[in-house]
Amino acid sequence: MRAYKDNLVYNPTWKNEYTWMDYDSSQNGMVCMICKVHGKPPVQARGTWVTKPINNWVKAKSLLIQHEKSDWHAAAIERMVMSQSTEEHVNVMEQLEAATAEEKKQNRDIMKKLIRSLYFLVKHHIHHTTTFENLITLQIENGDIIQKSHREKCPHNATYESCTTIVELLSSISNVLEKRIITSLSASPYYSLMADESTDVASQEELLVCARWIEDNKSVEHFLGILHAKEKNAQAIACYPRTFLHSKNICFDKMRGLGFDGTKTMSGHRSGVQIRLRLHAPSFIYVHCRCHKLQLAALNAASEHTVLKRVLVTLLTIWKAFHFSPKKAEKLGEIQAELRLLKSKCRSLVILAGEKHIVVLEEEKSEFLHKVYRPYLQSVIDHINVRMESTELISAMSVFDPRHLPGTEEELSEYGIEHIKTLTDFYSVNKGSM
């Protein structure tokens, strides 16, 4: 009773005099049930008595009187009376709960639309901070009633279309996706890692990291992140993936496969990144990226044929000549237009020339296949065979392929002995001494 008299806490007796008032114990404040359902508070009220409970107990009595005499409280009462005259009487608390549930549903619908719109912009590499609001406006103009109603009724500082909100939404999407990926990766008994260096548009060195693991008895692959590479020596690069995985609580020792390009920094057998990482995860198999190998095989094969070598040099020279000069690029457009016109005229000449022109084309095609195309393909095949020769360890993995199992018990007793020995030698060695 002492606290009630000193106006230090909420006094339940106020409810007897002001029946429209309700005490929200979770927020320790008073709200107006009538205004929350039927009221339209002025902007300067900033949600007081509706979304912002009153908890100034020293001035509580005067605030109750002031609100009861306010114009917008009186207007809310009028709207309540009018609604009761046309509908069945509903308890104020029931109205309040129904309105709150509907309000939550509408907010969820709005957030879903905003997140989908933002995801669309990011997925298609469109500037989201400058385009997001215009995209929402376009959706409203195309008949989106929900977003139109939200923009008209919500306060100016709660449209969820500002740059700050966009960044927060994008960060939330990123956090949810990352959490799902990391949870799945952590649950897998083993995984393999692939990383490659790159330079962004701001000339910043980066290390891109991807992983493959088992999920629901299926192999899945996901991009994990971009790591800023301040230094490019083997010792520094070897620390980046370990530090990254450790920050995500992923056990580095579970790694069973590692893929890099063929540079000495990455694949060096003495002090390369793969050797340094093997000290912390000794059971993984290092694989030189097959895409890099294929590119090198194609380039080496092309360098052996003068015609193709000239073509590559010519294409590179043309690209450099027009890429860095707007004037030359404009001139290139004019040349392309003339070539299109010439092509249409040549098509008419081909029709007039008839079979004679076709014979000439067939002879030129046959000469190209004989002198350039077939030799080049053979060179590519030869370089692929050299560069992509399977390692003894990877070849030994074929012993687990059921398609290679022999058909008789006699053959099965001696099946894959050499392969099993290779795998045993690799996985049974004391890795701690490596």
UniProtKB/TrEMBL annotation:
GO MF term list: ligase activity
InterPro entries: DUF4371, RNaseH-like_sf
Organism encoding this protein: Oopsacas minuta
Protein name: E3 SUMO-protein ligase
Pfam families: DUF4371 (PF14291)
Domain DUF4371: 131-270
Domain of life: Eukaryota
Coiled-coil regions listed in the entry: 82-113
Keywords carried by this UniProt record: Coiled coil, Ligase
